[in-house]
Amino acid sequence: MNPLLRVTLLGVLLTAVLAIESPAELDPKSIDWSTVRTLQETSKFRAKFGLAPLSDDEIRSSRISGGTVAAPSDIPWAAGVLIHGGTSGHSFCSGVLISARFVLTAANCVSGESTVTVALNAANMANIGYLISVSNILIHPNFSWLLGRDDLAILTLSRDAPIDNVTIRPVLMPRRSDAQKTFNDWMATTAGWGNTGNRDDEPIPTQFLQWAMDTVTSNLVCQLSYTWVRSTHICVSTDNGGPCNGDEGAPVTVREAGRIFLIGLHSFHYSGIRGCDRGRSAVNTRITEYLDWIEQNSDVVIQP
């Protein structure tokens, strides 16, 4: 390679790396929250189906179904994920804090994106505690949006989250011994800022973090609704409420002997003509299938 060309390319690469590693902090007051989009409303997502982009006015007029409002200390590991889409506007997903430096979210939210900000202590989005920029986005290497497979991404925060163990606290991860469990019939909690279905023009994110609790269903039952479900998925019933648009990447947790830990990350839900219809299970990424990958690519230590 020509030495001059090599130097030029190296300079471009260094500039790109520095741009990623030194992101600017976002002022929440600078965001027009009424035009923040769900994943399904983004121009990139709609282009996959040959649909035209939506205008901000259309977003305003077209807006966890059946959930319960969370207090600031109820789900301190919940993280809002704001994706800066440039001319397509901002979009929003959910995520989960796994350490002071790392957040898990759905790959389908951040694949192909470069500028992301995480909201913490944001049970009330009108009073966000912290907005921290993301310095690196790592998509699972086998992620396939088409196949709904390996829908997982690790976000590196540009600075440590101010953990107070009250309103901001990393979620506990499964132990390696938990990998043998199916969790079938366990009660699981899903939490996010997605649509509630309570109003037609509901903005995303909703003002308040909400959670819903329901039973884990077997993958065999889940396959009756989604034929492509496999061992790396874990499904939860939506009879008592469940995830909706904007909840992609939301944490799914269970409690065992007083210990609350992560078993899933929301990936996919059924959206019918009435919004996120109840009755079909919500599909999540099964965290116990990815313990090695998470440990290798973050500072999280998985216990035996």
From TrEMBL:
Q: Where is the signal peptide?
A: 1-19
Q: Tell me where on the tree of life, at the top rank, the source sits.
A: Eukaryota
Record key words, sorted: Signal
Q: Which SUPFAM superfamilies has this protein been placed in?
A: Trypsin-like serine proteases (SSF50494)
* The Peptidase S1 domain, residue ranges: 64-299
The record's comment on protein family reads: Belongs to the peptidase S1 family. CLIP subfamily.
* Name of the protein in its database record: Peptidase S1 domain-containing protein
Source species of the chain = Culex pipiens pipiens (Northern house mosquito)
